[in-house]
Amino acid sequence: MAPSDSKKTTGPDLQEHSGIVEESLAEIAAQLVANGSIEQSIGDDQSVPEASQLLPYGMSVFVPSPRKRDVMDNLAHMQSLHESGFDPVPHIAARTYKSRQELKEFLQAAVAEFGVHRVLLIGGDDSEPQGPYENASAILKDGILSGFAINEVVLAGYPEGHPVIPQQILQDDLEEKLQIATDQGLCVELVTQFCFAPSRVIEYCASLALRLPELPVYVGMAGPASTARLMRYARYCGVSASLRALSAFGAKVINLVTHTDPSEQLDALAHYRATRQECNVIGVHVFSFGGFLESAQWMREKCRRR
Known about the structure:
By secondary structure, the protein is α/β, with parallel strands linked by helices. Helix content is 43%, strand content 16%. An eight-stranded parallel beta barrel has the order 3-4-5-6-7-8-9-10, surrounded by six helices. It has a two-stranded antiparallel sheet with strand order 1-2.
C-alpha cells in the first residue's frame, strides 16, 4: 500500500511530568482540522465562495452522489468548488452507474475540467446495481481509475458497523480493496462514518492502527447542526446505535452529544492522538448536513488555535 504522505503531520512532543499540556491538545486539535476535509450538501453552492475565505486553500471538499440525482449533475457542484480554490472529491457510488461508459465520461470531465485526482469509493444507496458495478471493489477491479489522473482513493470505515453488512465482511472487503488499490499504485485513505460516541470511534481507530498501521485515517464527525437535523441524518446513515446506547443516560446526555458544537468529540480525538504511539489518524472529516458555511466557520475557529 502507498499511503498519501503529503497530508500526514506529526504532532509535537506532548508528554510532560505533569501530563499532557492543554495547549498541546489544542494544537493537535487544530492540526487535525487544518489537515482535514469537509463534505458539501445539496443546496450549499451559494455559500461556497464565502466558505473559501475561511478554510485553507486547496482543502478537500467531498461531493455526495444522492440516489435520485443524475451522476452527471455533480459536475456543476464541483465547478463552483474548483473555481473557489477547493479540491473537489466526488463520491463514486458504484451501484448508481448504469454503464462503464457513464462512469468513464464522468471521470473524464471531472479530471479534465475540475482537477479531480481523488475520489471516495462507496457502494451507494441503491439496493440493486443500476449497471455493471455491484460495489466499490468492482470499480477497483475494473481498473478504470488508472486510465485517468486519479491517484488517491478514499474508502469508507464504519465505527458502528454497517446497517446491512456484517462486521467480518466489512473487514475482509476493506483489506481486499486495499490490496487491489495498492497493486494499481493508488494511494489509499479511509474516512469513517460519523458517530455520536467518541469511545466507539477511538476503539475503531485503535483497531485499525493494529491491523492496518500504514492506512491514513480521517475521522468523520458531525459539524455544527441542530439536534433534530443530526438525529435525522443519524437515522439515515445508520448510526442510531450510539444514540440508543447513550439514551440509557437520559435526554440530558443525548442533548450533550448531539449538540451544535462538535468540539468535545474533537478534543477526545486529540487526546487519543496525543497518548497513543500507534495512531494513524491524520485529520477529521466534517459532515456539514446542509450547513456548509456554519461548518466552515467552526473549522476556521479551530484552526486559529494553532
